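Continuing the series of single-chain predictions for the mutant panel. This is the parent chain; the variants come on the following pages.
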Amino acid sequence: MTGPDPAVAAVRRAVRRSIADLRDQPHEQLALVALSGGADSTALAAASAFEVRTGPLRVGAVVVDHGLQEDSAAVAQEAAAAARDMGLDPVRVVRVDVGGPGGPEAAARRARYLALHDEARRHGAVTVLLGHTRDDQAETVLLGLGRGSGARSIAGMRPVDGLWRRPLLDVTRAQTTAACAAQQLTVWNDPHNDDAGFTRVRLRREVMPALTDALGPGVVAALARTADRLRDDDDALRGWAERVAHDARCDDGGWSVDVLADVPHAVRSRVMRQIALDAGVMGGSLTSEHVAAVGALVTAWHGQGPANLPGGVVAQRRCGRLYLAAVPQDGSG
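Parent structure:
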């Protein structure tokens, strides 16, 4: 008796490992697949349905319709119908409005994650499964390098990151495509994936092939390994930063400058970033320059004024302590 196609087996194995802890729970739980209709998320949905045929873990799907193409509503409904045919339940189609700062890619991503988060909360899901592959991970590393980002960005996407799980980070895009073909699953090819106006598309079509020609076919796997190793370092530094933040916290809501100054820059910058986020700065708008400006209040203090951060948050130093707070924009308070 022959087994499944190798690509199908690879995707199923990856999903099995990712949700093993959830399958071992004695009570019923729900996981949701973020389904676009493309090969990656379709292969993920099919494998998830297969892996939870028995046991208390259920799998549903959320299809986010960004409304960026004329036929987006029809595509979303077709993806939802395919999910129901696989046995996923519940299956939801959510229409979102894409807009705001950061360009269309960032705006679509922001709207998508917000919709997925809301659906997970509405249905009591313990996790959302995302279809990012090894190729996506390699591209993320290159994007971080090109932007001059630090280790946190170059470490790429985490297999488990709070609500989000990415079972396919060790699976290639070619494998998900092959898995769908082997199971005769219909997939949707997003026209945006061929639009060279998007940075990630240019990276995928031009940069990655050039790197493969120059460095060999293992470059995607090597970039993914780089992310794995940097993530270990980042986790260690993040844990150190959490301890420092705890020790630096003062009863009046400020932060001890002496404690913050007494650690390496790699740790202090992580503390500064987390403090800013906790004060209300949106992560996507917080740059390394903002973090450096807050850090300068600790290590390069010469009586300078406050550091202004996105979202109306202001950082200032008083009496040996650092304070971050949102300032009302109407002049009150």
